[in-house]
């Protein structure tokens, strides 16, 4: 995974890959900052159309971001030709987001033959943890 303290420019190739493979990520404005088998870093931004009441970023939006970036982390760990699909996901919500850019960091915690487990943290610009998601990705044999 790229250095968390590195420059925050989006990686156009990885961002385009995410948008092509998961079209919802384009609609949601996800930008990939970097990634490899050790993990993926990404960014998304608060916007009023992504909110629930009182200008608070919607939990479903946060979960979609975590699922998408977690899936990318799993993809970097797949055998050649294999695919993946989320089979379980659990998210803890710690604090609200009412402005700013969020950083999403997905780290594999288990890479096995049939499943990959990924932990994805979303943090606010002040560094405080917004959500922590643990998801299990199935390793799907090549077709």
Number of domains: 1
Compute the number of helices: 3
Helix and strand content put the structural class at: alpha+beta
Most strands sheet:
6 strands, antiparallel
Going by CATH, the homologous superfamily would be: Hotdog Thioesterase
Mean pLDDT: 94
Secondary-structure arrangement, i.e. CATH architecture: Roll
State the order of secondary-structure elements, H for helix, E for strand: HHEEHEEEE
pLDDT < 50 stretches: none
Q: What is the strand tally? A: 6
Strand content: 35-45%
Ends apart, CA distance between termini: 29 Å
Q: Which CATH class applies here?
A: Alpha Beta
CATH-derived topology: Thiol Ester Dehydrase, Chain A
Report the C-alpha radius of gyration, rounded.
Answer: 14 Å
Question: Biggest sheet: strands side by side, in what order?
Answer: 1-2-4-5-6-3
Question: What layout of secondary structure does this protein have?
Answer:
Blueprint: H1 12-21, H2 24-28, E1 31-36, E2 39-45, H3 59-75, E3 83-93, E4 101-111, E5 115-123, E6 129-140
Antiparallel strand pairs: 1-2, 2-4, 3-6, 4-5, 5-6
Q: Can you offer a commentary on this structure?
A:
With 143 residues, the chain is an alpha+beta fold. The chain has one domain: Roll (Thiol Ester Dehydrase, Chain A). 22% of the residues lie in helices and 39% in strands. The longest helix is centred in the middle third of the chain and has 17 residues. The chain is globular, with a radius of gyration of 14 Å. 29% of the residues are buried.
């Amino acid at each position: 995974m790229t250095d968390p303290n590195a420059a925050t420019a989006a990686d156009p190739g990885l961002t385009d890959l995410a948008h092509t493979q998961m079209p919802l990520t384009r609609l949601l404005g996800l930008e990939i900052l970097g990634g490899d088998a050790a993990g993926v870093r990404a960014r998304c931004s608060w916007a009023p159309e992504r909110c629930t009441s009182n200008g608070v970023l919607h939990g479903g939006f946060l979960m979609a971001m975590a699922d998408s970036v977690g899936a990318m982390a799993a993809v970097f760990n797949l055998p050649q030709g294999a695919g993946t699909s989320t089979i379980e996901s659990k998210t803890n919500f710690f604090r609200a987001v009412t402005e700013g850019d969020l950083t999403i960091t997905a780290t594999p915690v288990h890479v096995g033959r049939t499943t990959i487990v990924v932990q994805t943290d979303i943090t606010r610009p002040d560094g405080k943890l917004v959500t922590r998601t643990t998801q299990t990705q199935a390793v799907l044999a090549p077709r």
